[in-house]
Amino acid sequence: MAGAGAVAGAGAGAGARALGIRVHPAAAATALALSFGTHYAADRRVPGKGLLEKIATKTGKSNFYKLADFGMNGAFHLDSAWHHGWETVAALIATTKATTR
Q: Of all helices (H) and strands (E), which one includes residue 64?
């Protein structure tokens, strides 16, 4: 997982540089830590114990989470939505105090 974080950091840094954005180091570190933490929490899928499965059950969406038919996969869609949401928050944090080059 640490390797994925390093790749994400390098990719985000290269992207920011290519776009002419100077990212504050503390904001970048905070954003990467948030991304790492939320990915780790969501992707530890132990049947009956995973975070996303627990959230689905508590919100009455366990049938959707378990859906795996008609070309749909509820767990996949919930996982994807979780990651997109947290990556948006991480991007907002990363651009705090950002300046142009």
A: helix 62-66
Q: At what angle do helices 51-58 and 74-94 cross, to 10 degrees?
A: 110
Span 41-73, pLDDT tens digits = 998 877 778 899 999 999 999 999 999 988 889
Find the helix packing angle between 51-58 and 25-43, rounded to 10°: 70
Task: Enter the tokens of residue 96.
Answer: 């705090």
Q: 3-30, pLDDT tens digit by residue?
A: 777 888 898 889 999 999 999 999 999 9
For residue 21, what are the contacts with CB-CB under 8 A and spacing of at least 6?
A: 95, 98, 99, 100, 101
For 53, the enclosing helix (H) or strand (E) is helix 51-58
